């Protein structure tokens, strides 16, 4: 493996914040004497292509400047290359950065982990749909929350977590029960009508909403949270508890841990890491310790 550091940037992430974050990250690394090679993608496909080019040069680490969706879009190549990843968060939600306690809002501090961080092996989620296989790092959303993610991506105002909250209120007006069928860890499929199903490797989505509160990114398990059919009023009452991660004890919420989950429903749409990944039946599983991230703290061993 070489001595240079590759920087893969998505300038469009975070409504354009990615460009400034990339510049700050590169400037910091070069100021510390690192050899840096920059790859800037103009689209998701371009970013994926450039990730392969960057990894073929065998860098000591790959610095990804962007949001959760930017990193998940290149996961197949990164996991196959076994190159440590440094995430410089510049997306809308940055929930992976929250889970790993990475610096947010300080691109130089995040990039510094390429030089002084320690490696941490984390799990990677996998979703299989008719559209193919997509990897993810935070939460797969099915049902109401997927519709909220869809609405969030279409809104242009406000920014950050407030945009997600506005999308939630809009979709609340359109709330409909979904007739889910779910099979967990090979058990027979069972009807599970409800409002939403969230399957997470980490705890939060939407910029810090801990729907899978307590989920760990490296335990080899997925946290499965199901919310029963709710009226608009009951869902509104549940929302403050969700924001504080105190909803899992409610009788209308079921929480369990699993390695594989298959979900079907009419009109089902799946989102993961804030990106639409497929429709119809989906099977979600976990690849334990499949990715190495650089996190805060001195490297040991």
Summarize the structure.
With 301 residues, this protein is α+β, with helices and mostly antiparallel strands. The protein has two domains: 5-116, Probable inorganic polyphosphate/atp-NAD kinase, domain 1 (Rossmann fold, 3-Layer(aba) Sandwich), CATH 3.40.50; 128-288, Tumour Suppressor Smad4. Helices cover 32% and strands 33% of the residues.
Distance between the termini: 19 Å
Strand order of the largest sheet: 6-5-16-13-8-9
Structural class: alpha+beta
User: Overall pLDDT, averaged?
Assistant: 91
Number of helices: 9
Question: Would you list the SSEs in sequence order as H and E?
Answer: EHEHEHHEHHEEEHHEEEEHEEEEE
- By CATH, the architecture of the largest domain is named Sandwich
Strand content: 25-35%
- CATH top level assignment of the largest domain: Mainly Beta
Largest β sheet strand count, sense and barrel closure:
6 strands, antiparallel
CATH topology of the largest domain: Tumour Suppressor Smad4
* Total domain modules: 2
Instruction: Give start-end ranges of low-pLDDT stretches.
Output: none
Radius of gyration, taken over Cα atoms and rounded to an integer in Å: 19 Å
**What's the total number of strands?**
16
Question: What is the multimeric organization of the chains shown?
Answer: single chain
What is the overall silhouette?
Answer: globular
